[in-house]
Amino acid sequence: MRAITRSSTKQERVGFYLTPPTDQITAQRQLEDILGQHESEELQKQTRAILGRPVESLAASFGDGFRDGLLAMPQGQWNVLQSKDGWQRRSPRFPAPGALAGFENVRDEVARIWHTEETRKQAWEAVSRLKANYKVRYEQ
What we know:
Elements: E1 13-18, H1 24-35, H2 41-46, E2 48-54, H3 58-62, H4 64-72, E3 79-83, E4 86-92, H5 103-132
Antiparallel strand pairs: 1-2, 1-4, 3-4
């Protein structure tokens, strides 16, 4: 289900699902769970949809091997690929080549991603405020 769009005025783009990086053995076990359709709710919540990512940006973010592996994957197939951050499960995303998903189709996922990011930002801001009230001293 990977879609790469080509035109003379637009960049090639690809969409895929992305799971958190881990070690190879864990990634392979999680892939088996995904293929068996019994992955954990936690893994489902941590999986992000990458929509319309420029192909030329993949190597800088994930590494050359990741980019090449993703582009070589058959459409719709989950696989384990190694990125700069570790082993991750990936699946090409788009329902039809060259078509971006409509908002109605990704509304719940977008809301979950936004909520997760907002929670992360608020937590980081709270930690930063708490840190500002402390001073570290070394005594000998």
